[in-house]
Write a structure and sequence with these properties.
Helices cover 58% and strands 11% of the residues. The protein is of the alpha/beta class. Strands 6, 7, 8, 9, 10, 11, 12 and 13 form an eight-stranded mixed β-sheet that branches.
C-alpha cells in the first residue's frame, strides 16, 4: 500500500491536515505524528519505522519548520534512505528555504519545490498527486482513509455526483467534561484559563486522533468526539473507551501543577453511547460533520450522570466492549428525552485476559461444525509431544469463529503440561511497530497497561534476563519497545537496532519453548504492522525448535506466498467457512436450548446470518435483549415481526468497517446497487448510476473484495451481494431522501427495459415505487401485484399488497378518482379477507370501505360491502346480523336488477340460514337462485366477486338438502357445483364442494366417501391459502375416521379442526369442533374430556345461535349423563329428546336420525328395551326414507342394535 510520510511542525498542523486529507481522498495512505505515534513504544523508533516503510515524503517547509531539529532529522533520515521528497513551501520562496536551512540543501538538491497558493492548497495537492503517479507511486483501490482531528476536504474536492448530504451510520459518541473548570475560572485570569484549556484540549485532540476519532466540538470545559465518522471501525466503542481513559489520565497528570493555584484537583468525567446517527454535510473546513441523532443526546445525558473520574457507557457500548474492559452495572436511570429508564455501566478497568469471542453476556452456543478443525489441532499437540513443530494459519472472515475455535482448543489442553503464550493485534494498533510482540511479552512477563515506568522496567528486565540467558546485552533493545531509555542505545543506528532486536526476539521465543511443550498464538495478524509480519515470517520460515504457532487472520491478509508455504513441511492452513444450514440450525437450537424454533426466526436467521456464527449469535441475543424473542415456558416466541432494523449494531459495525475502506466512487456504486436489491442486473445499475464511467472498475474491485459475485452472464449480466446483511447495511447507510430518489429511478428504468413482460415484475416495481415519492405509480403496481396474488390464491400476499396500495392513495390528495380507486381496492381485498376467515383487523377495513362508498354515493359498492359484512358477522357468531345485511343486499339488488349482486347476496343469505340451521330456507332460496343463473346462462360468471356465485350457492343448497336427508338430490347438486368450479378454476368453491360432499356422506354414513372428499377439500384449500371452512373439512375427516372406528385418528383430526377454529375466530365452527371431539371422546370411553368438550360446544352454540350444533350437543350430553349416573334416566332422556326436537324443528332429518339412534342405544343400556326398540325403529325408518345404502354405518349400527335387543 502506497504510504506518504508527512513531515511538519505543530504550528503547520492545519496545512498538513489539508494535504493529508487530499492524499487520502485520492487513495493514498498517509503517516503523520499526531495521529500515528502511539503510546507504549519510543516515538523515535516509530518515526524511524515510518520513514523506512514510506514511499515518499511530503515536507511542509515554513520558516518555523526550517529551525526544527525534528524536521531536520526527518529530512536527513529520508535522504539517507533514498526517499522521494515533495517540498511544499508555506509563506516562503525557494531561495529563502536554501538560505535559512543549509542542512537541507543536499537532501533537496534538484528537487522541484511546490509553493502553496494563498487561496488554497487544491493546486498544490494536485501537483503532489501528479508527481507521485509520475514516479510510479499509485493509489490503492480499497484505501482506508484516516480520520484526522479536523480534516479539511472541501465539498469542491469531492466528485459533484457523490452525495455530500451525509449518511446514516452507527457511531460511538463520547462526551467528556472537566471537573474543576469553575474553580479555575474563579482563581485564574481568563487568559491563563484559555492557555490551560488550549493545552488540555490539544492533548485531548491528539488522543482522539490516535484512535481515529473525530472532534465534533469543544464547548467550554467539554469535548464531544465521535468514533465511526467518516470511517467506521468495528471496534469504535473500544477505541472510545481507551481514548477516554487516556484523556482522564493525562488530565490527572496535569492536575498537580494546577491544583495549588485553584485549590482543587482537575478530573474528567465521561459519558459514551453507541447508536445510529445521521452524519450530514461533511465539511472539514468548518470542523464539523453536522452529526444528528438521539445517540448524541443520550451520550450527553450519560456524561451528566458520571461522577468525578468516572467513565459511564450505554448498553450498546457495553455489549461491544465487554470483552476488553471490566464494567460495573449501575441502576437503570431515567434521563431527559427518554420515556423508559436506560441501563448504564461504569468502566472499571481493562481486562487482563481480553476476549475476542465478542460476547461475554447473553446466550452462548456450543462449538458447532468445527470438529474436523479441532481434530487437526489436537493431532498437532500429539506431534508436539514427540518434538515435532507445527505452524497453523487459521483463516476466516470476520465472525466465522476463529477466536472461538482457539478458545475451545485452549480449554481442551492440560495447561499444567503445555505452556500457552499469546499476543494480539488490534485495529487501533496497526501503526505501532512490533505491537503483537509487545503484547505477547507483556502477557508473559505480566506487564500491565498503564503501570509506572519503574515497574515496567523491573518486570521487563526480570523477564528478559530469564529468557535471554547470557545475552544481557540485548535487554536495552527490548526495553526500547517500552519507551525505556538506556544510555548505551544513544549511539545505535536504526539498522543496528533492528538487527539486534530481531536477534533478541528470536532468542526469547526459542528459550521460552525449551521449558515445556509450547503453543504460541498470534491473533488478528491482519492488523499487525509490517515490521511484526516481517519478523514473524522470518522466525517461522527458519523454525527449528518444537512449538505450535497459531497465526489467526482474515483472508484479506496473507502471511506467506504459496511458494513459501509449499516449502515448509510443518505449515498447515485451516480455512473457516460459514456453517452449513444444518449446523446453523443446530447452533440456534444450542443457543436457545430447544429444538422448537419459531418459524419466522428460523427464516430470519437463515436469510440474514447465512451461517456466520458471530452474526447468528448476535442476532439471537439482541432479539432477546430487546424483548422481541421471549421465553414462554419451555419454548420461545416472537413478540413482533422481524425487520432489517433487527440487525444488531455489533454486526453493522463489522460490515460497515469493510464498506468504509472502499473508494468513494466504489462505495457509492455499491449503495446504488443495494437499492436495486440483493441481486441486481448490470444494465439497471448502469442506467441509474451517476457514476457510469466507474461502474466496470468498481464491480471488478467489489468482486475481488468478495462483497459481490456474478450469478449470471446470460441472458443478462447479474450480480448478487455475497451476504444479505451486507446489502442491508449498505442500504441502511443511505439517507431516506436519497433512497427514495434511487428507488424511483430504478422503477422508471425497469419499465423501460422490461416493458414486454412487465407482469413478471409487478411486485418488484411495486416495491421500488412504494419506497419512492411516486405514490401514484406505487399504487398502480401494488394493486396489480395484489390482483396477481389473488388470482394465484396467495391471499395473505394479496391483502398485504392491497393494504399498501391504499396507504399510497392515502398519501395523495383526496379526490373523487382517488376515492374510487380506494373503494375498488377495498372491495378486492374483502374477498381475500373472507377466504382467510376474516383475520384480526378485518372489520375496520370493511368499515373504512363503507365510509368511502358512502362519501362517493356508490350504492352498488355499498351493497358489496354489506355482503362482506354479512359474511363477517355470520363467521363471528352473529348469523341474525349477518342475515340482516344479506337480505338488505339481496332486496336492493333485486330492485335494480343487478344479477351479480343478487347472486352474491343469495349465497350470503343461504350461508346465514345454513349456520343457524334454517335449512328449508336455504333449499328454497338456493333452488330459485340456481334456476335464475342457469336460465340466464350465468353459471360461470364471477360478477367481480373473485369466486363462482353459482358453485357457491350449489354448495349451500346441496349441503342443506343433505341435512334434510335428500341425499341423492344433494349429491347431484354438489356435483354440478364442483364440476362448474373446476371448469372456471375456482379453488375456493372446489374446496367447498368437496367439504359439503363430505358432510352429506358423513350424514348418510358412508365412511370412505367422507374421508375422500374431506381430504380433497383440505388439500385444495391449503394449497390455495384458504382458511375459511378448513376447520369443517378437518372435523369431517375426523368424522370419516369415527365411522371407521379409528378414534385416535378421529381425535387428531378433531383437534386440528379445533385449533384452526380458535385461530380463525369462528365461533359456530368452534362449537362443531368441540361437539365432534366430545362425541369421539365419549365413544372411546374418555368421559371427562368428553364432558369438557360438550359443555364448551353447548355454550358456544347457544351464543352464536347454531341450532343444529346445540341439538346434537344436547343429545350427547344426555347420553353422557346417563352413562355417569344410570339412575337418572329420565333427566338424561329429557335432554336427548330436547336435542332431537331442536333438530326436527330445523328439518335436519339426517342428524335427527342419529339422535334417535343414540337415544335407542342409551335406553338399551338402561335396560328399557321397549322404549329402546321404539326409538331405534324410528331411526331405521328415517334412514329408509332417506334411501341410504344398506352398507351405511348409521343404518348398520341401528339394525345391529335392534337385533341385539330382540
Amino acid at each position: 500500500m502506497s504510504c506518504i510520510f508527512l513531515s511538519h511542525i505543530e504550528k503547520d498542523l492545519p496545512v498538513m491536515l489539508d494535504i493529508a486529507q487530499g492524499l487520502e481522498a485520492a487513495g493514498y495512505r498517509t503517516w503523520y505524528f499526531e495521529r500515528d505515534v502511539l503510546a507504549g513504544t519510543s516515538y523515535l523508533i516509530q518515526i524511524t519505522h515510518a520513514l523506512e516503510n514510506c514511499d515518499a515524503i511530503v515536507l511542509i517547509a515554513s520558516p518555523n519548520a526550517c529551525i526544527s531539529d525534528q524536521v531536520t532529522k526527518e529530512v536527513i533520515g529520508g535522504f539517507e534512505r533514498g526517499k522521494l521528497f515533495f517540498p511544499v513551501l508555506i509563506n516562503m520562496k525557494p531561495p529563502e528555504l536554501k538560505e535559512c536551512q543549509p542542512e537541507w540543501r543536499h537532501a533537496l538538491g534538484g528537487t522541484a519545490m511546490i509553493v502553496a497558493e494563498p487561496e488554497g492548497l487544491s493546486l498544490s495537492i494536485a501537483r503532489i498527486i501528479d508527481g507521485l503517479k509520475a514516479k510510479g507511486i499509485q493509489p490503492e483501490a480499497s484505501m482506508v482513509e484516516k480520520t484526522p482531528i479536523s480534516g479539511r476536504t472541501k465539498d469542491s474536492d469531492l466528485s459533484p455526483r457523490l452525495s455530500t448530504h451525509g449518511e446514516r451510520k452507527h457511531v460511538t459518541v463520547m462526551f467528556s467534561d472537566l471537573s474543576g473548570y469553575t474553580a479555575m475560572n474563579e482563581k485564574l485570569d481568563p487568559e491563563e484559563v484559555k492557555e490551560i484549556m488550549d493545552t488540555i484540549f490539544g492533548k485531548i485532540s491528539q488522543v482522539v486522533v490516535k484512535y481515529e476519532g473525530f472532534i465534533e466540538k469543544f464547548v467550554g470545559d467539554a469535548v464531544m468526539a465521535i468514533f465511526g465518522v467518516p470511517k467506521t471501525h468495528e471496534d469504535d466503542p473500544v477505541r472510545a473507551i481507551r481514548a477516554a481513559r487516556e484523556i482522564h489520565n493525562l488530565v490527572k497528570e496535569i492536575s498537580p501543577t494546577l491544583s495549588k493555584k485553584i485549590g482543587r484537583p482537575l478530573y474528567m468525567h465521561t459519558g459514551i453511547n453507541t447508536g445510529l446517527v445521521v452524519a450530514k454535510d461533511i465539511d472539514f473546513e468548518k470542523g464539523t460533520h453536522g452529526v444528528l441523532g438521539d445517540t448524541i443526546n443520550v451520550a450527553s445525558r450519560i456524561s451528566g450522570l458520571a461522577k468525578t473520574d468516572e467513565i459511564i457507557v450505554g448498553i450498546e457500548t457495553y455489549h461491544q466492549a465487554e470483552g476488553y474492559f471490566n464494567f460495573e452495572k449501575l441502576d437503570s436511570t431515567k434521563v431527559k428525552g427518554k420515556e423508559e429508564p436506560i441501563q448504564i455501566y461504569k468502566v472499571s478497568s481493562p481486562k487482563e485476559a481480553l476476549s475476542k469471542t465478542h460476547r461475554l453476556s447473553g446466550l452462548r452456543a456450543e462449538l458447532i461444525g468445527r470438529r474436523v478443525e479441532m481434530d487437526r489441532l489436537k493431532e498437532a499437540v500429539e506431534n508436539l509431544k514427540q518434538g515435532k513443530p507445527s505452524i497453523f494459519s487459521i483463516i476466516g472472515e470476520a465472525g466465522t469463529g476463529k477466536s472461538r475455535l482457539i478458545e475451545e482448543f485452549r480449554k481442551s489442553l492440560d495447561l499444567n503440561a503445555i505452556q500457552w503464550r499469546e499476543g494480539h493485534s488490534y485495529g487501533y494498533s496497526q501503526n505501532i511497530p512490533y505491537f503483537p510482540l509487545i503484547d505477547l511479552l507483556s502477557r508473559a512477563w505480566q506487564i500491565k497497561e498503564g503501570e509506572p515506568p519503574d515497574q515496567t522496567r523491573q518486570k521487563m528486565e526480570r523477564g528478559a534476563q530469564t529468557t535471554l540467558g547470557e545475552r544481557k546485552d540485548l535487554i536495552p533493545y527490548i526495553g526500547n519497545l517500552y519507551s525505556l531509555s538506556y544510555q548505551e542505545m544513544d549511539q545505535v543506528s536504526p539498522e543496528q537496532w533492528k538487527i539486534k532486536f530481531h536477534e533478541a526476539i528470536k532468542l526469547i521465543l526459542a528459550n521460552l519453548c525449551k521449558h515445556s511443550p509450547t503453543i504460541i498464538c498470534i491473533e488478528d495478524l491482519h492488523w499487525a504492522d509490517p515490521s511484526s509480519v516481517e519478523l514473524l515470517r522470518n522466525i517461522l520460515m527458519d523454525l527449528k525448535y518444537p512449538v505450535i504457532f497459531l497465526c489467526i487472520y482474515r483472508p484479506s491478509f496473507s502471511l506467506f506466498t504459496s511458494h513459501q508455504a509449499g516449502s515448509m513441511k510443518s505449515y498447515h492452513e485451516i480455512r473457516l467457512l460459514q456453517l452449513s444450514p444444518t449446523d446453523a440450525q443446530s447452533m440456534v437450537e444450542s443457543l436457545l436450548k430447544t429444538k422448537t424454533i419459531p418459524k419466522q426466526l428460523q427464516m430470519f436467521v437463515r436469510d440474514k446470518a447465512e451461517g456466520n456464527p458471530f452474526y447468528l449469535e448476535e442476532v439471537i441475543n439482541s432479539l432477546i435483549e430487546a424483548d422481541t424473542l421471549i421465553k414462554d415456558k419451555d419454548s420461545w416466541k416472537l413478540t413482533r415481526t422481524l425487520t432489517e432494523k433487527d440487525i444488531p449494531s455489533t454486526v453493522q459495525g463489522v460490515i460497515s468497517a469493510r464498506l468504509d475502506r472502499l473508494e468513494r466512487e466504489t462505495k457509492r456504486i455499491l449503495q446504488e446497487a443495494s437499492v436495486i436489491g440483493r441481486a441486481f442486473l448490470y444494465e439497471i445499475l448502469k442506467r441509474i448510476s451517476d457514476l457510469k464511467e466507474y461502474i466496470d472498475k468498481s464491480l471488478i474491485n467489489l468482486e475481488r473484495l468478495d462483497l459481490i459475485k456474478t450469478i449470471s452472464l446470460q441472458p443478462e449480466l447479474e450480480y448478487i451481494f455475497k451476504h444479505a446483511l451486507t446489502q442491508e447495511v449498505v442500504y441502511n447507510g443511505l439517507l431516506l431522501k436519497e433512497r427514495r430518489l434511487i428507488h424511483e429511478k430504478i422503477g422508471l428504468v425497469m419499465e423501460e427495459l422490461l416493458h414486454d413482460h412487465l407482469p413478471e415484475f409487478y411486485e418488484t416495481l411495486a416495491y421500488h415505487y412504494s419506497q419512492s415519492d411516486n405514490f401514484q405509480k406505487a399504487y398502480e403496481y401494488l394493486k396489480l401485484s395484489g390482483d396477481k396474488a389473488a388470482k394465484n390464491y396467495a391471499n395473505n400476499e394479496a391483502i398485504r399488497f392491497y393494504k399498501e396500495a391504499i396507504r399510497m392513495l392515502d398519501a395523495q390528495p383526496e379526490g373523487v378518482e382517488n376515492k374510487k380507486e380506494k373503494l375498488a381496492t377495498f372491495i378486492q381485498m374483502m374477498m381475500r379477507l373472507t377466504m382467510l376467515s376474516y383475520p384480526e383487523g378485518s372489520l375496520a377495513i370493511i368499515q373504512n370501505a363503507e365510509k368511502v362508498a358512502q362519501e362517493l354515493g356508490d350504492d352498488e359498492g355499498l351493497l358489496q360491502i354489506y355482503g362482506s359484512l354479512s359474511y363477517y358477522h355470520t363467521f363471528a357468531g352473529n348469523p341474525s346480523l349477518g342475515l340482516e345485511y344479506a337480505e338488505k343486499c339481496f332486496n336492493s339488488a333485486e330492485k335494480i336488477k343487478n344479477f351479480g349482486l343478487m347472486a352474491q347476496s343469495a349465497g350470503q343469505v343461504c350461508f346465514a340460514y345454513w349456520t343457524s340451521g334454517d335449512v328449508a330456507k336455504v333449499v328454497d332460496i338456493g333452488s330459485k337462485a340456481i334456476h335464475l343463473l342457469e336460465e340466464n346462462h350465468l353459471e360461470k360468471d364471477f360478477f367481480g366477486m373473485g369466486y363462482s356465485a353459482y358453485s357457491h350457492i350449489c354448495s349451500n343448497y346441496g349441503g342443506s338438502l343433505g341435512y334434510m336427508g335428500r341425499f341423492k338430490e344433494a349429491t347431484d347438486v354438489l356435483e354440478k357445483g364442483l364440476r362448474n368450479a373446476g371448469e372456471v378454476d375456482d379453488k375456493m368453491e372446489m374446496g367447498f364442494a368437496h367439504m359439503y360432499h363430505s358432510i352429506v356422506a358423513q350424514l348418510a354414513g358412508y365412511e370412505d366417501d367422507t374421508i375422500i372428499h374431506a381430504q380433497q377439500a383440505i388439500k385444495i384449500l391449503e394449497e390455495a391459502e384458504i382458511s375459511v371452512a378448513a376447520e369443517t373439512a378437518w372435523f369431517m375427516l375426523g368424522g370419516g375416521y369415527y365411522l371407521l372406528g379409528d378414534y385416535e385418528k378421529a381425535i387428531d383430526a378433531g383437534e386440528k379442526s379445533l385449533s384452526l377454529a380458535k385461530e380463525n375466530g369462528m365461533p359456530f365452527l368452534l362449537s362443531w369442533s368441540y361437539w365432534f371431539l366430545g362425541m369421539t371422546f365419549w365413544t372411546s370411553g374418555d368421559l371427562r374430556r368428553a364432558k369438557e368438550c360438550a359443555d364448551e360446544a353447548l355454550k358456544i352454540s347457544q351464543e352464536c345461535n347454531s341450532k343444529p350444533c346445540e341439538g346434537m350437543t344436547r343429545v350427547l350430553l344426555g347420553c353422557m349423563v346417563g352413562e355417569k349416573a344410570p339412575t337418572i334416566i329420565e333427566e338424561a332422556q329429557r335432554q336427548i329428546r330436547y336435542g332431537i326436537s331442536i333438530l326436527e324443528d330445523c328439518k335436519i332429518k339426517g342428524w335427527s336420525a342419529v339422535g334417535y339412534l343414540h337415544l335407542g342405544e342409551f335406553l338399551a343400556k338402561a335396560d328399557r328395551k321397549e322404549e329402546a326398540l321404539e326409538n331405534l325403529r324410528k331411526a331405521e325408518t328415517l334412514y329408509q326414507e332417506m334411501e341410504v345404502c344398506p352398507q351405511s354405518h348409521w343404518l348398520t349400527r341401528t339394525k345391529d342394535a335392534i337385533v341385539r335387543l330382540r
